[in-house]
Amino acid sequence: MDLHFSAEDEAFRAEARAWLDDALAGEFAVVRGRGGPGDEHSLFEERWAWEQHLGAHGWTCLGWPGEWGGRDLTLHQQVIWFEEYARARGPGRLGHIGEGLVGPTVLHYGDDAQRTRFLPGIQKGTELWCQGYSEPGAGSDLANISTRAERDGDDWVLHGQKVWTSLAQWSQWCFVLARTNRDVPKHKGITFFMVPMDQDGIEIRPIRQVTGTAEFNEVFLDGARAAHADVIGGVDQGWGVAMGLLAFERGASTLGQQLAFRNELDAVVAGLRERGRLDDPVLRQRVAGLHAELEIMRWNSLRVLSESAEDVPREALVTKLYWASWHRALGELAVDAAGPDALLGRELDAPEPGDELTDAQRLFLFTRSDTIYGGSNEIQRNIIGERGLGLPREPRP
């Protein structure tokens, strides 16, 4: 594993750093540092304009092939971009689901007509996407979905419910897993659909959270339609596509997430210093532990992302469990570091839901969900045990 950056890489770093510093000092200064965990609802119009600004200047989809709007950049250069974006405190990306999940999936599993249809809007930042996977009865057990789709001429008609759908209220498209064959084992009869959100057969209901915000949603599909031409990977072949998409989540953006974690940890340390509590031996030990664990997280991610790796190594299986538990511990330290002030909010009559919370309160409350969504910690341990260590499968009812 070669973790050294070449002279060409460092030149790219200087280019990326200069562009970000300039872009985030002008009209987009208002979005700098916004849109992170618990703050996803903030400044939507401004952040969508930022997405389109990134696309117009060639700073989206950096690893995609040039013929499909990318820049064919190496993995090292993609890592550098995400590092510099976090360093510059770039806003939370509204286009990350399209760029990081949908785009690679269409490139790998789609045909040229589908690439022509879906990739330009993602690259330009003009079309936003959401994910239709989880259901009330099929959260961590994704293959247990009950949403169904039936063929109707050139279309498919979908009925069912999805839940915890981030950005659904703003998205133009949703990729949806639906059951198309009930006469085969549950993994075999699933299809991967691209569904337009602006149609009569879709109802979106926000889910109000403990933070006061509602970036998650329920999505009800009642006769929603998807074109047969927009099925990715073939009818009844959606499970393989879905698993491939989840593998793309372990891309270079994980390094950017960790740099964002570093910014949050630094902010907590700054708060301790301001309160004169950095000499508290217990708090210092917790800070040191989080620092060391964050470094371990980074090195493990670099190992997983190493270009020499032919297959996704089993070390990748610990990623979600590790970062979710780490982030939750950081949220706990943030409120402990604030001391009695952690009980006081900012404004009783805040202009937006959630704005009455301090940064420490928002971090604490939001990170409680990190160990639940995307596969709970319990599910992650099962995955590590069964797939990584080869232990017997947990008994099924």
From TrEMBL:
Residue span(s) of domain Acyl-CoA dehydrogenase/oxidase N-terminal: 7-125
UniProt KW keywords: FAD, Flavoprotein, Oxidoreductase
Highest taxon of source: Bacteria
SUPFAM superfamilies: Acyl-CoA dehydrogenase C-terminal domain-like, Acyl-CoA dehydrogenase NM domain-like
Domain Acyl-CoA oxidase/dehydrogenase middle intervals: 130-219
Pfam family of the protein (one): Acyl-CoA_dh_1
UniProt key word Oxidoreductase: yes
InterPro entries membership: Acyl-CoA_Oxase/DH_mid-dom, Acyl-CoA_Oxase/DH_mid-dom_sf, AcylCo_DH-like_C, AcylCo_DH/oxidase_C, AcylCoA_DH/ox_N, AcylCoA_DH/ox_N_sf, AcylCoA_DH/oxidase_NM_dom_sf, Mycobact_Acyl-CoA_DH
Cofactor: FAD
Record-annotated Acyl-CoA dehydrogenase/oxidase C-terminal domain positions: 236-388
Protein family according to the UniProt entry: Belongs to the acyl-CoA dehydrogenase family.
Protein name from the UniProt record: Acyl-CoA dehydrogenase family protein
Origin species: Iamia majanohamensis
